[in-house]
Amino acid sequence: MQILENYRQAIQHPIFEFITEAAKQLQVDAYVIGGFVRDFILERGTAKDVDIVAVGSGIELALKVAELLPNKPKVQVFKTYGTAMLRYQDIEVEFVGARKESYTEDSRNPEVEEGTLQDDQNRRDFTINALAISLNANSLGVLLDPFDGVQDLQAKIIRTPLDPDITYSDDPLRMMRAIRFATQLNFTIESDSLSAITKNSERLKIITRERVMVEINKILEAPVPSVGFLHLERTGLLTQILPELTSLKGVEEVEGQKHKDNFYHTLEVVDNISENTDDVWLRWAALLHDIGKAPTKRFSKKVGWTFHNHEFVGSKMVYKLFKRSKLPLNNKMKFVQKMVLLSSRPIVLASEVTDSAIRRLVFDAGDDIESLMTLCEADITTKNPNKFKRYHSNFKLVRDKIKEVEERDRVRNFEPPISGETIMTTFDLKPCREIGQIKDHIKESILDGCIENNYEQAFELMLLKGKKLGLTPKL
Ligand code: ATP
User: Fold this and answer.
1) Is the pLDDT at 256 greater than 90, yes or no?
2) According to the model, what pLDDT value does residue 429 have?
3) Taking the CA atoms of the chain, what radius of gyration do you get in angstroms?
4) DSSP alpha helices (H): ranges in 137-225?
5) What's the CA-to-centroid distance between 129 and ligand 1, angstroms?
6) Nearest residue CA, atom 4 of ligand 1?
7) Mutation to probe ligand 1, out of 129, 159, 179, 204 (largest number of atoms < 8 A from CB)
8) What is the C-alpha separation between 438 and 471, in angstroms, rounded?
């Protein structure tokens, strides 16, 4: 934490000198505000996004800065929002005129009028995001902190500058942002804020799915994502965003038999996997790996609680969830589906490792086998230390076996050793069903370990299978 008398150190990048000069020439006041100041004080590394507020026209200031800069960068102007953006070296700078906002019931986009710096700080979401540093020659580097944001940074608190109830109701996206910052920074949300979020949670409906998902992704990318998901659940937001997850909550008991609470289990899995991967899609897979358990849950007197086929059902649910949430329906989604579908396979193997089962797993998982093993290891949430150790060492065996089988049999990204062409020429065939049958038989025999994955053995087998199908090789 850097708490200084004067924050000139924060504005060392050459861009700031040009902004100071441009502001002087236009005779407007300019300040760097928001995330850049917050992250400087928190020593989170130098931010590449800089927000500048001008008491006057932000667009004019941007144009003036561009004129003064040696490379005369292009300025992107967003007239409707009164903002402008330019890039200089590694920095992206956004300019806005200081404004006052007033909201209507059905929109998060306020009526805007010109205002003072104080007005502009009032419209900021959190005290820690309302900090501003002066870029004006006569007060260069002075910190303007009207809501004790620095104190909140020290105390690790998320608090709104004005009445939280109004702040969240005006722009419900702030509820998501509060939870996101609490998760990213490991901060506490001040209790009035938390109650206001709960009270206003239904207002989330006026926010577009895309914006909500940006925040969900940021929560999922944080070091301990469960912090955010627990807040989302407790405030009533999660059930509106990902009801598939809240359906997993709860423990049912029938005839003295209980199942585990799959919601809390899921969050543990997400936290576990986050220690081992930054891949947000693998983290999504962890978040969704058990969603099929709610619709497949059954109780039978003989075996107790079952979730038959939940992996398959879950992988089908992924598509609907992604579509509704406006997440990409591309190979990232397919990856998540595949992880959910295969999520129990290595667990079964851990109790009995056979070569052919390993070959089939590697064949089905392809290049995603590593990710799948990472997911399965994260899935171990038993609190029994002996079991924990045993499960992990079983997975170690599975990993060793995968390596061994892979080196020998090369079934990852399987390419058939005998092509359809070869089968057609050998038996003088036109395209027909038998070709598929022969290819399939060869593949299955390799996976079962009946033959090795090479041309010679596959050719032999092709002749045998062809004979069984009544085909004669052309001489
Ligand atoms: P990050 O880059 O990690 O998202 P940030 O604070 O820079 O953090 P931005 O979304 O770039 O986030 O917003 C810049 C600043 O604009 C914030 O620091 C805050 O002062 C203000 N701001 C952004 N969104 C809102 C909002 N919904 N309501 C009020 N102020 C906001």
Assistant:
1) no
2) 93
3) 30
4) 149-155, 164-170, 173-185, 191-200, 209-221
5) 7
6) 35
7) 129
8) 11
